Amino acid sequence: MKRRRLMILITTALTTMLIAIGLRSLTSTPVVAQSNTNLLVSAAASMKDVLAEIKPLYQQSQPNVSITYNFGASGALQRQIEQGAPVDVFISAAKKQVDALEQKNLLVPGSRTVIANNVRQVLASVESGNTDAGLVYVTDARISNKVKVVVAADEKYHSPIIYPLAILKRSKNVDTAKNFSQFLASDKAKAVFKKYGFILP
Predict the structure, then answer these.
(1) In the chain, where does DSSP find H-type helix?
(2) pTM of the shown model
(3) Edge-to-edge strand order for the sheet containing 65-72?
(4) How many C-beta atoms lie closer than 10 Å to residue 91's C-beta?
(5) Which among 166, 136, 159, 162 is positioned nearest to 149, based on CA atoms?
(6) How far is the C-alpha of 37 from the C-alpha of 53, rounded, in Å?
(7) Helix, strand or coil for residue 168?
(8) Backbone angles phi, psi at 95, to 5 degrees
(9) Which of 37, 108, 161, 188 is the most buried (most CB within 10 A)?
(10) Residue closest to 42 by CA, chosen among 2, 82, 5, 99
(11) What residues pair up with 114 in beta bridges, in sequence order?
């Protein structure tokens, strides 16, 4: 009788444990939505305005994700990453920087996507009057009301300007970084990119 009662108690305890585990698994939600996550995005300076406008749009659906931007020349950002900067997402203004990081095995496999010292410095120099003219991206010229586009380079005279994006292997927030990367390809984000003169595939 005691043995049977003991078995019933053990069975009841196990059943309770299984129910508790089952409920926990049923009520679990994606990490991106549940936890507070800080995402560090290093991006080419020419992406500053468009990414600033995209940030609150992304946070509407992911309010617990805090995004910090680090803007600069792509080469300088590449060196920061190589020296150990805790970057989650890198958006370069040219392929070669991302290629170099990939060759050093610093990127999450399959995470690459397509879209003077620094073109923003050139723009600022023309705006201030220190330089009579400068060669900048049309996306930079469009955001300034202090400069005038005199001539646009014909596409046949230059290779396509591509902004590759990649996620860093050392990121502690790979899932969130992937989610942010996917959002940049969404219709909401594409509308903002288009506003600033970027063309997405």
Answers:
(1) 2-27, 31-34, 48-61, 74-82, 95-103, 119-128, 138-141, 174-183, 187-195
(2) 0.67
(3) 65-72, 37-44, 89-91, 164-167, 113-114
(4) 24
(5) 136
(6) 20
(7) strand
(8) -70, -35
(9) 37
(10) 82
(11) 164
Q: Which residues of the chain have pLDDT under 50?
A: 1-33, 116-118
Tokens of 121: 């410095």
Q: Provide the residue type at 80 as one letter.
A: Q
Do the beta carbons of residue 67 and residue 41 sit within 8 Å?
yes
Q: Identify whether the C-beta of residue 75 lies closer than 8 Å to the C-beta of residue 97.
A: yes
Cβ atoms of 115 and 164 closer than 8 Å: yes
Q: Which residues lie below 8 Å from residue 198, measured CB to CB, with a gap of 6+?
A: 50, 115, 139, 163
The DSSP letter of residue 60 is H
Structure tokens at 173: 């927030």
CA angle 100, 179, 113 (to 5 degrees): 35
| Cα separation of the two ends of the chain | 74
37-44 and 89-91: which strand pairing?
parallel
Q: CA–CA distance from 148 to each of 19, 193, 194 (Å)? A: 68, 21, 20
* Amino acid identity at 102: E
